[in-house]
Amino acid sequence: MRWASRAQFFCSxxxxxxxxxxxxTVKAHYEINEAQLGFAILAAGVGALLGLTQASRWIGRHGAxxxxxxxxxxxxxxxxxxxxxPNLAALLVLLAMFGIATSVFDVAINTEAAQLExxxxxxxxxxxxxxxxxxxxxxxxxxSAAIAAGMSAQHHLALVAVAMALTIVVAARSMxxxxxxxxxxxxxGFRLPRxxxxxxxxxxxxxxxxxxxxxxxxxxxxLQELGSPQQQAALAYAxxxxxxxxxxxxxxxxxxRFAPAGLLRASALLAAGSMTVVxxxxxxxxxxxxxxxxxxxxxxxxxxxFAASARVPGVEPAxxxxxxxxxxxxxxxxxxxxxxxxxxxxxxxxxxxxxxxFALALAASARRADxxx
Length: 373
What we know:
- This protein is mainly alpha-helical.
- The chain has 18 helices and no strands.
- It has one domain: Growth Hormone, Chain: A, CATH 1.20.1250.
- 82% of the residues lie in helices and 0% in strands.
């Protein structure tokens, strides 16, 4: 069961990385500027919000495995249509559907991971998110290689879509049975988290706003701001994801050894410092090293907060993780378009200083997050 869950996280990261690598391709294909690209990413965010209103209900009724198969398979399959929309309006609709599938899939696999951690009575969440980062590294690296080899973008997207959709559907058959992740009251509508869950959700949203900004804008940053060729620029995502994966695979041991507040604070400060280096340097290779530092810094922020949400007194663990992951995912989808609007108004470099600001906010709030659970 753990390997089925790890496979789902890997596929999620691989698909998202493939989208990240081809953001410049989408921008060039539809001949749009940063603000229009921001609207396109916002469409995915709006779709994610719509998905989040139903995620807990669907998981409660059908279980995480069935929901992961349906929404994860759809999420992967939609990649193949990214360059087939006839115009920008159609692309917005497509990305809204992409957002719906992505957000529900994300809540489903995080709910599964939380239940597995509780059943095993030892930290597992960081390792699961490490598989997401490993998938991101693999997706970004293979995307860079495909571009360097001259493979057409459409061919690459179609190959990834088929492979990931099949893997997701097959892996879902070995996830926990429906009863293990279904909620007692599955017909309740979406509710914003309150109290301790609201705080954890807000902090997770800050972390994922910053993380999402790296996923969606790091490639374009190297390409546009530092003048890197696209195959080198694609390594920004790979550098970030590889470092994050390594840190997350060691994260469960760190969570067992260090207090959550101290780990969260140190991680956020490392992310803030590394991102500052990225934005101050004019050398692409230094920036790539900086993105790796940002990856290490953000690696255990979300696992720490998600695990805490499963321990909130008086809240069913599956519902707690679903509520906080829903709030966090909203931040994940909302951050990149905000960066796009700010980049259009000033510059992408100036806009990405938001990553530094949110990392510092996480560091300042670390003790409150620890006491919430």
